[in-house]
Write a structure and sequence with these properties.
Order of helices and strands: HEHEHEEEEHEHEHEH
Structural class: alpha/beta
Radius of gyration: 15 Å
Number of strands: 9
Distance between the termini: 26 Å
Shape: globular
Helix content: 25-40%
Largest sheet: 7 strands, parallel
Mean pLDDT: 93
Low-confidence stretches: none
């Protein structure tokens, strides 16, 4: 069975505009495998958030800019969210997306001991994009992202969680599965196969 047939029923009728991806422990390795599947001419606005120490400079945008053909940069305060661009949350600030599709940085207290926190980004993106959002939650060692995925589902968006059985740290995907009953629970290779298909749902 080809990928279109496997995922067609979940994607049918959807118009995905933006994709948010959250991860923690083991997340860099997962993204190295996953993100090259984004098409070079992607129309999606893709935002990735990993738990990074607040006192350390993040090199994630630099790392993936060297690996991918599409534009990659760290999200900046008051910057409009552009289609066809891959953004990373920087250290020390929560990253959220306003309803007018503009990034916002804040110094509010950590959530699940993390700042930036996955929940903050996902919940705000769900409110901003509604059914036009897809969320992917990968490997991680705490519960961050579970409520964010729940909010994405409540707003009509598509929810995808990495199979905990293959995650480097299973807690994060397990918590999301318990809380939000995601549309898809997939090994990383299948999430990679799904990514290009999200493009076919864009207007």
């Amino acid at each position: 069975m080809n990928d279109v047939a496997r995922f067609g029923s979940v994607l049918a009728g959807r118009r995905i505009e933006a994709l948010v991806i959250g991860a923690s422990a083991g997340g860099v390795d997962a993204l190295v495998e996953l993100l090259p599947a984004l098409p070079p001419a992607s129309k999606l606005a893709t935002v990735c958030i990993l738990h990074v120490p607040s006192d350390r400079e993040s090199r994630l945008a630099e790392l993936f800019d060297a690996r991918l053909a599409l534009p990659v940069r760290e999200a900046m305060d008051k910057e409009p969210v552009a289609p066809g661009t891959l953004y990373f949350a920087g250290p020390g600030y929560h990253l959220s997306i306003e309803e007018d599709h503009v990034f916002s940085l804040s110094c509010e207290p950590p959530v699940h001991y993390a700042r930036p926190a996955i929940d903050v980004l996902m919940e705000s993106a769900a409110n901003a994009y509604g059914a036009g959002l897809a969320g992917i939650l990968l490997t991680g060692a705490n519960a961050d992202g579970a409520y964010g995925m729940q909010r994405i589902r409540q707003c009509g968006g598509l929810t995808i969680v990495q199979d905990p059985g293959e995650a480097q740290a299973a807690t994060m995907p397990e918590q999301a599965i318990r809380l939000c009953a995601p549309h898809l629970v997939l090994p990383l290779a299948d999430i990679r196969a799904l990514l290009p298909l999200l493009e076919t749902t864009t207007p």
